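sry for the spam today, last one i promise. struct tokens for design, 294 residues
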């Protein structure tokens, strides 16, 4: 999938950056950058796009993203309504692969770091004791400068390189660069889908958004995402359904299926089980059990 190149706002003298920011939302631009990214959600929820993976995100999620891995955190609707009491907040640490110097990765001691960077190309969810250690260091790094911050980031990389408490998010993507027209087009398509997934979006309708014929759009979307438009739309709807199942008290799955844009209950059940491996009721029960007995 092509994406927008993002210039990380760091001082060009330093190959790393640590900051904590509060925003109305996390934006809507699908983007990539040469820096690796540690991203901790303090406040916010919505749909997360990393590579070819679409999942929900919530507060207290900690991820490591590899260099040039496309990503986007799309907050829920209420974060775009201008309410000053509804904001998203995160701690973000960016660092170039060779942040310790040009010959850093050529040293024997960096073997484990090499392996970490390769795993990070798939995106990594960090959990367990490692998550607590990394979060503490991220909070410290925000307050630090110069050599202190550099040492703290190196310590984070060392901990992650030797940890088994990470889970891959996606299959991993190589870097690429999109021109402005491609970036604007795919971002416009994404925005339209995320704003209208509850409705029936016809191929003619979404093709007109992209200013393409239906045939050209289908070919273009498959080339960019490795998925058909219908499969992508279904994944977005199921992601929303999973959130409703664990957060809301909507009593029936029939109500949920229509809320998410499915036109009948059996269709919703079939796609939900295909994507998650369980029924909506089983998904909710599993979530409740895991959170009660953690």
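last one done:
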């Amino acid at each position: 999938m092509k994406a927008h190149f993002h210039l990380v706002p760091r001082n060009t003298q330093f190959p790393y950056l640590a900051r904590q920011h509060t925003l109305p939302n996390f934006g809507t631009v699908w983007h990539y950058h040469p820096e690796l990214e540690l991203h901790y959600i303090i406040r916010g929820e919505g749909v997360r796009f990393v590579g070819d993976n679409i999942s929900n995100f919530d507060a207290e999620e900690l991820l490591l993203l590899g260099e040039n891995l496309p990503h986007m955190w799309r907050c829920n609707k209420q974060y775009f309504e201008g309410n000053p009491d509804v904001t998203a907040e995160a701690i973000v640490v960016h660092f170039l692969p060779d942040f310790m110097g040009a010959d850093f990765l050529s040293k024997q001691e960096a073997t484990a770091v090499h392996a970490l960077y390769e795993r990070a190309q798939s995106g990594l969810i960090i959990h367990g004791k490692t998550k607590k250690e990394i979060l503490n260091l991220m909070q410290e790094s925000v307050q630090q400068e110069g050599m202190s911050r550099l040492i703290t980031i190196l310590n984070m990389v060392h901990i992650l390189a030797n940890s088994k408490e990470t889970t891959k998010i996606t299959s991993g993507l190589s870097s690429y660069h999109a021109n402005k027209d491609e970036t604007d087009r795919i971002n416009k398509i994404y925005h339209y889908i995320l704003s209208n997934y509850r409705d029936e979006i016809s191929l003619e309708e979404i093709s007109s958004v992209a200013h393409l014929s239906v045939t050209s759009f289908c070919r273009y979307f498959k080339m960019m995402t490795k998925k058909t438009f219908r499969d992508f739309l279904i994944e977005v709807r199921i992601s929303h359904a999973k959130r409703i199942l664990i957060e809301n008290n909507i009593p029936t799955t029939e109500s949920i299926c229509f809320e998410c844009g499915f036109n009948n209950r059996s269709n919703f059940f079939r796609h939900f089980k295909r994507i998650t491996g369980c029924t909506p009721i089983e998904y909710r029960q599993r979530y409740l059990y895991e959170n009660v007995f953690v």
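Residues 4-168 form a domain with the Jelly Rolls fold (CATH 2.60.120.280). ok im logging off now
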